[in-house]
Amino acid sequence: MQYTRLGRTGLQVSRIGLGCMSYGVAATGLHRWTLDEDAAAPFFRQAVELGVTFWDTANVYQGGTSEEFVGRAITRFSRRDDIVLATKVSGKMHDGPGGSGLSRKAVMEQVDASLRRLGTDYIDVYYIHRFDPGTPVEETMATLHALVQAGKVRYLGASSMWAWQFAKLQHVAVLGGWTPFVAMQDQYNVLKREEERDMIPMCLDQGVGLTPYSPLAKGRAARPWGAQTVRSSSDTVAQAFDRDVDQPVVDAVQRVAEARDVPMAQVALAWVLAKPVVSCPIVGATKPHHLRDAVAALELTLTDAEIADLEAGYTPQDNYWW
């Protein structure tokens, strides 16, 4: 395992993060690929054995049960101080006024609920899951700063929003003397590069580290064109990566992988890791080789020609966040 600092902070994170959306009690048929606690346990153990110390979840993942699984796994397989624990707030947990969004009431209610489920008294990186247009940004940033001051949260992150929204939040934090965001978790992969327009240049300028989700494009960049999995055949979000215009990129990943004699996942992830703004891509593991391939990608250095080949077939698209 390799380790780096999260953006310009002093926080050390593993270069591969364990994404925990795949673990929990599925509330709907949408996530048929979600693993229950017994099935998820080997992946937490494997993460510890491989040195994957950055674990990422969210309050809304499987109705909070992902956080419960993560909290118990830390106690079972590691020590709290050895894990950099991240979770998120803003998604709907219930219908009440504190059940969603980024109001003072919602953030304070939901951080305490996450702490209870996780079985800890602090969160290392607390992300706002989405921008909340219904709450003044001053209210959100002042509340998040209060959580840092109270010791409930160590660092702040944001996820999936327009660059102007992120800039507004950061500017208000500076004006108020409040804690700014040091991490951005957006969707970034060889099939989804729209963040290169505005968000990534901004993060590079401000020293914000990227912890991108879906670095393998929901698995589409990890298998030949046309191949399907349980998730890709049942998850409408994953099916967004079945655009015909994406085939040239997937074919390029396969071409480089075959020339290197490595799995496609390693090539696709090596492309993400090669970007200077990226601190720690988040990898969801539901099969034994997923984390092993991700860690192996750290040793794969792509040539300029290979990177050019992977990027040549990209077709720009409308931005979207799932």
The CATH architecture assignment turns out to be Alpha-Beta Barrel
Q: Kindly provide the name of the CATH class.
A: Alpha Beta
The helix-and-strand class reads alpha/beta
Q: What is the count of DSSP helices, taking H or I runs of 4+ residues?
A: 11
Total domain modules: 1
Helix-strand sequence: EEEHEHEHEHEHEHEHHHEHH
Output the keywords.
alpha/beta, two-stranded antiparallel ribbon, 322 residues, 39% helix, TIM Barrel, single chain
Explain how this protein is built.
- 39% of the residues lie in helices and 13% in strands.
- It is an alpha/beta fold.
- It has a single domain (3-217, 275-286), classed as TIM Barrel.
- Strands 9-8-7-6-5-4-3-10 form an 8-stranded parallel β-sheet, covered by helices on one side. A two-stranded antiparallel ribbon has the order 1-2.
- α2 (65-77) links the parallel β4 (54-56) and β5 (84-89).
- The longest helix has 15 residues, at 104-118.
- The chain is globular and about 55 Å long.
- The relative contact order is 0.14.
Describe the structure in brief:
By secondary structure, this protein is α/β, with parallel strands linked by helices.
